[in-house]
Specification:
The protein is an alpha/beta fold and 212 residues long. The protein is built from nine helices and nine strands. It has a single domain, classed as 3-Layer(aba) Sandwich (Rossmann fold), CATH 3.40.50. The chain is globular, with a radius of gyration of 19 Å.
Length: 212
C-alpha cells in the first residue's frame, strides 16, 4: 500500500460552528477514535471555565502575553470573540504536519479565513450547522455554562456566524452527534488520500511499473 511505502504530509482539519451547534463534542469523539489526529490547543485570554485544564483545553494567557506573541508572528491565526482573544501557536502545528500527523482545530470563521490565506493546501474546513435555531438555543441553555445574557448574545451572533458557511469545504448538519462524527470522519479519511498529500506517491507508482 502507498501509505507504507511513502510519507504523507499531515493536514489541518478545522471544525467551525455557532456556539452550541456541537463542534466541540464532535471534536472530542473524533480524537478518541483517530490516533493520528491531535488537537491544536489554542491560546485564549478568557477566564478558565469549571473543569477546564491549562494546556489541555486551552493555554490561558494574559492579554499582554497574547499581544506579544502576535507581534512576534508566533500565531497562525488569531481573533477576538465575545471580548476575548483566541489564537493558534504556529510551531507545534508545523512540526506535527511535517511529521505526518493531522491537527484538529476548533476555531471560528475569522481564524479559518486566516488559515486559508496562509496555508490553504494543508487546510480542510468543515462547518457544523444546527438543525434549527430553536434547537441551538436549547443546547446552549442545556449545557449551563453561560448566563442568560451570554446565551442571548451567542444566539444574536449565530446568524452572522452561519452566514460564512459558503467559505467552507464541507457542511455537516448536526442532527445527531454520532451521525455527524461518522460524516466528519469520512471527510478526514478521504482527505488523507488526496494525491497531493501522499508525498512519495510518484516514486511508489514508478516502482510498481518497473516490477511489471
Amino acid at each position: 500500500m502507498p501509505d507504507r511505502e511513502s510519507k504523507r504530509r499531515g493536514l489541518m482539519l478545522v471544525l467551525s460552528s455557532p456556539s452550541g451547534a456541537g463542534k466541540t463534542t464532535i471534536a472530542r469523539k473524533l480524537l478518541a477514535s483517530e490516533p493520528n489526529l491531535k488537537m491544536s490547543v489554542s491560546l485564549t485570554t478568557r477566564p478558565r471555565r469549571r473543569g477546564e485544564a491549562q494546556g489541555i483545553d486551552y493555554h490561558f494567557v494574559t492579554a499582554s502575553d497574547f499581544g506579544e506573541m502576535v507581534n512576534r508572528g508566533e500565531l497562525l491565526e488569531h481573533a477576538k470573540v465575545f471580548g476575548h482573544y483566541y489564537g493558534t501557536p504556529k510551531e507545534p502545528v508545523e512540526e506535527a504536519l511535517a511529521a505526518g500527523a493531522d491537527m484538529l482545530f476548533d476555531i471560528d470563521w475569522q481564524g479559518t479565513q486566516q488559515l486559508a490565506a496562509s496555508a490553504r493546501g494543508d487546510l480542510v474546513s468543515v462547518f457544523i450547522l444546527p438543525p434549527s435555531t430553536s434547537e441551538l438555543e436549547r443546547r446552549l441553555q442545556a449545557r449551563a455554562q453561560d448566563s442568560a445574557e451570554v446565551v442571548a448574545a451567542r444566539m444574536a451572533k449565530a446568524a452572522d456566524e452561519m452566514s460564512h458557511w459558503p467559505e467552507y469545504d464541507y457542511i455537516v448538519v448536526n442532527y445527531k452527534i454520532d451521525d455527524s462524527v461518522v460524516q466528519v470522519r469520512a471527510i478526514l479519511v478521504a482527505e488523507r488520500l488526496r494525491r497531493a498529500r501522499q508525498l512519495g506517491l510518484v516514486d511508489f507508482v514508478k516502482r510498481l511499473r518497473q516490477r511489471q
